[in-house]
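The record is given unchanged here:
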Amino acid sequence: MFDELNDYRKKIREFALKEFTEDVSKKYDRNEEFPFDIAKKALSLGMIDMENPAKILIAIEEMCRVDAGLGISATLPYFGGEVLLLFGNDGQKKILNDVYQGKVMLGLGITEPSGGSDVAGLKTFAKKSGNKYILNGSKMFISNGAIADYLVVLARTSEEEKRHQGLSTFLVNTKLKGFKATKLENKLGVRATNTAEIEFNDVELSEGDLIGEEGKGFYYIMTFFNISRIYVAGQALGISEGAFDKIKSYVKTMNLADEQTMFDVADVSTRIEAAKQLTYNAASYLFKYDPKPELTSMAKAYSGETAVYSSEKAMEITGKSPDESIQRIFRNAKIMEIWEGTSEVEKLVISKQILKGD
């Protein structure tokens, strides 16, 4: 499947190299500004093709290879869309057509100030009142939070003995009364993305805003993570490759041939190849509708760690190089070990899946 898309990969790389120039990347990173025009241009390439999701993975990888801040921003307008596609009603799914055309932006609201990894421990509550739900609570570190038209929000709808059984998902129009978003400033990396703190103060939702069945939200989000973690692995893989591009260019330009540098080149190259094999192997199962959570988590955790390792080596090898793009790669890499499940969470998933098998 992936070998057949080499022409598409080349097309995406050419787009990224043309649009993500150093001046443009530097501008959006320094100003912490979302690149709306670039995101719309990227969508016009047809990368959001749910009939061929391999295009999404390839686009993410190749764009992040050039610049992760812009690359992730360009692929975030549909963030959370898979929840609607898999579990939404007809009205909710219609919104996706506008998302794919760049007319509407989505976001996903899960993480809360009191904790991120413990999804079932969230405190945001949607209380049923007649034929409505009244939503109260807050979310933290929400991608697209201050610019999204709609957010897919996970909230508690009942108190159950098993916490994960009382959660539901909603499609929240961000123009509703009681919704407030505050953009977070001075982030370490991926500064071109929009990240916000969200508050819900008696936000009125209709029964039609419920996504799927009440009480099934936890399972919907876990299904989403099985998908999104592949894409985060693609982000991390792209960052690693971008760091390695810088390493190779510097080593060749400076004609470095000392033993330690050669060891570093070999180590980075080997880890990237391993991350690529893990990512595309896990993706092959997902795209055949047979996801393997342990493989997905292996790909996400290892690729994230490889991004950090590769960017650190790029900084070390280039030494006092004034190349600001290397510094951006270094800053962008760290989030790969954190969002969509920390490396520690991924390792728990891996071990539990492995140990419950034969």
Observations:
- The chain has a mean pLDDT of 94.
- The radius of gyration is 20 Å.
- The chain has three domains: 3-75, 105-215, 219-355.
